[in-house]
Amino acid sequence: MSYIIKGETADWELVIGLEVHAQVISNSKLFSGSATSFGAGPNSHVSLVDAAMPGMLPVINAHCIEQAVKTGLGLNAAINRHSVFERKNYFYADLPQGYQISQFLHPIVGEGLLEIQLKDGTTREIGIERLHMEQDAGKSIHDKDPRRTFIDLNRAGVCLMEIVSHPAMHSPEEAGAYVRKVRSIVRYLETCDGNMEEGSMRADVNVSVRKVGETGLRTRTETKNVNSVRFMMQAIEFEAQRHVEMWESGGEVKQETRLFDPDTGETRPMRSKEEAHDYRYFPDPDLLPIELTQAYIDDIKATMPELPDQKKKRFMDELGLSAYDADVLVAERETANYFEVVAKGRDAKVAANWVISNLFGALNAAEKDISTSPVSAENLGKLLGLMADDTISGRIAKDVFEIMFETGDDPEKIVEDKGLKQITDTGAIEAAVDHAIADNPEQAEEVRQGNGKAIGWFVGQVMQKTQGKANPQAVNKMLRDKLGG
Amino acid sequence: MTNPNELTIAKARDALVAGDLKSTELTQSCLDAMSGARNLNAFITETPELALERAGQSDARRAKGESRGALEGIPVAVKDLYCTEGVLTTAASHILDGFVPEYESTVTENLRNAGSVMTGKTNLDEFAMGSANVTSHYGPVKNPWKLDDGKDRVPGGSSGGSAAAVAANLSLAAIGTDTGGSIRQPASFCGIVGMKPTYGRCSRWGTVAFASSLDQAGPMTKTVRDAAIMLQGMAGHDKKDSTSAPMMVPDFEAAITGDIRGMKIGIPKEYRIDGSPAEIDTIWQKGADMFRDAGAEIVDITLPHTKYALPTYYIVAPAEASSNLARYDGVRYGLRVDGDSLDEMYENTRAEGFGDEVKRRVLIGAYVLSAGYYDAYYVKAQQVRSRIAEDFKKAFEQVDCILTPTAPSTAFAIGEKMDDPIAMYMNDVFTVPASMAGLPCISVPGGLGDDGLPLGLHLITKPFDEETLFRAGDVLETQADFTAKPTDVGGGE
């Protein structure tokens, strides 16, 4: 599916590359023992190292290395057994050292590959160039005082992974699917919580356009720190349109960094002095290169959970789900786990339907998510069990589900308490059927004349009489026997 | 009887153990000498109260039979580059005005735990950048060695205050830091022993950084034995410094046996420099003769990349320094000179806070790391650095120890070479190559130059072979029998 901007003079295609910054899940920072938890009071998680006091030295947090390697493996990427931390030098008030410790020439993770699923049912593989580790900076707060800026160093030194894609995406949809996929993988791996609102995942978006048929790349712009998939897609659309208009009016796109304004849906250039940097990278002499053994990498590999792609394949191959259903169910690890509990020993397709349609529908309406669902996976499974063994009908099941959603109760208890068990006693059903026929001789006659539709009306009558508890198939059969329809 | 402050650590230790001396007396004696020799400007901060308190605690421990060893109760002066808890720490820079750390550097903490007593923070070149102790914001240090020409001599640098303090008996020992020669060259100028251990032997944690891949703590003492005792108290692996070596620390003093028979001493021909004064060759030859007399074998060796060491050093060290000094920005501690914007505040603070030599090196460092120059300078320098290390590695397949002069001259007068940075940088020509290779080395007084001022001899050994260094250094010291004393040891104006 191609995304083309029809200009005045030509058709234009997009070239998009993404740098996703993902905060590593770790109790302490990349090079110090300070806590990383979100929402603490300003400057309460700041060690001497984080504040760059004289003589302080960074010490690598081994857990962060493990997390980066795990993520690299999850992105089907090459793990570099030799990698180097370098200093990226620039002055800013929330960068206490005057340099950011990052990786440059020798990142910990090399080339990788990510498969994305598009709405039209096709898939695409997006190449990943690298993943490197770096320190986050602190936060400058400019709006508390007319003259002064306040600095909060809680984030300073927190470990980020920067995941850099090749310029291999060509539509906002692809970029969105890519970020969602990265997010899904890091959440499965528990290497990043993927929380874009809190800023633990954000993207720098590189966009350029070119005429269809051109092979080279035109000048790109980089929109920094976009913190939602929707905003990212908007930023891409806006930038692409702006580039096309710029080129077509005979202008030049300027290589620059820009910011996205969610209020207007537009991007604007960052102040130019913030970009005119020569970062003077060089290997950090305070740190030794990271040397990983193959055994270390293999050990991490052995602890990897099943990832969304593998899970999706299993759901399709072994459980017979459609690609679409499987994709929806595996996007979040919690959803997939929930589904697997519901489906255990039951009809997987029915389970998938219930989770995707009924449960998601109810959760959305109630503004809840799977982790706060009032209906536990075990209870939803039991409900499906009650249907499967004909204890209740599908119609009754929907009512029971509503009660479950409100009360969180066990469906077996609800069915018992409310007397919702399906009537399987043929005598009772027969009585109800006879009653219905006797009360409605004209409609009975229509059935006998061969009006198949009328039989449905009779089923409805009987079901109403039995408060829905009669087995609709049994009712149907009995009516046909008696009326010969 | 000699005054206690004139003792060596080894002699003071014996007296303290014998109960003939208390740390408080010894410390008081040093404090008196220190306050009587302020004309030397060897100290930036004197800490007499803290010293006496710690001396008292030391005496109490000893009385209870809880002595912590050889350094128990020994007064030590600390270069003001080490962060010391609750005590002003300046790096001799205006930019650290009023900076009182809440933490203690690992090396000074180790020395404290070994029972030693800090008497004060010694003067140095600003951020340890200099070879004459003339770049200090707190003024130059005077060498206690004087001639009758009336001129004050530099003590060398950057650990000039520490060297002067030991030479003038203001302290039994001092600690310095050595990046390209900052312990050894002042030791040579002041007629004392200065030792730089293997890179990684002492933790750099809590020491204000100049050039991280070169900086190393080391002792400055009256004798080689004292240097061994001091290093014992300073060294050791530190988890807080990733570049500190995870190795056991051997018993350095036990390595001093007085016997070096059969030891092979290398004489590198590349250290003979055109235009170098004859007295340098003379002392060097004298050193070789002394070793031969003591039963060592003298071997001519080659270190072919020696001439590239100094220019390479002046790429690597400033590059690291330019980045290490970026944190002095006026935001969190030290000097802040306000401006109308963040950038202006940076400019004002750093313009006023840093002296000329620091600015020069920050500029050189930023230049060699900048886009378009990085490969030609920094990358090339790192390649040369590996070659230099390779030279030494090959040489040590032939010899146990290398002998060179420490410095290309005796102490010069304050004010000389000030307008010629290259001439100033040449001071480190003999000390820098071993620094680039991270090797342990020591300067031992070898004799007097033609002008009657001291000249050191410089020994280098394999990585982490400080034991051979101390053994050879001690023999050299015995042979040289350097007994000359400086004239200005206090009481002057």
Highlighted features:
heterodimer; A: 485 residues; alpha+beta; Arc Repressor Mutant, subunit A; 9-stranded mixed β-sheet; 3-stranded antiparallel β-sheet; 15 helices; elongated; B: 493 residues; alpha/beta; Amidase signature (AS) enzymes; 11-stranded mixed β-sheet
| Lateral arrangement of strands in the main beta sheet of chain B | 1-3-2-4-6-5-10-11-9-7-8
Based on CA inertia axes, which overall geometry of chain B fits? globular
What is the CATH class of chain B? Alpha Beta
Query: Using DSSP, what is the number of strands of chain B?
Result: 11
The rough form of chain A would be described as elongated
- Please report which band the strand proportion of chain A falls in: under 5%, 5-15%, 15-25%, 25-35%, 35-45% or over 45%: 15-25%
Number of helices of chain A: 15
Mean pLDDT of chain A: 92
The domain count of chain A comes to 3
Query: What is the straight-line distance between the termini of chain B?
Result: 26 Å
Task: Please state the CA-atom Rg of chain A, rounded to the nearest Å.
Answer: 30 Å
Low-pLDDT runs of chain B: none
Q: H/E series of chain B, N to C?
A: HHEHEHEHEHEEHEHEHHHHEHHEEH
Briefly note the CATH topology name of chain B. Answer: Amidase signature (AS) enzymes
Distance between the termini of chain A: 50 Å
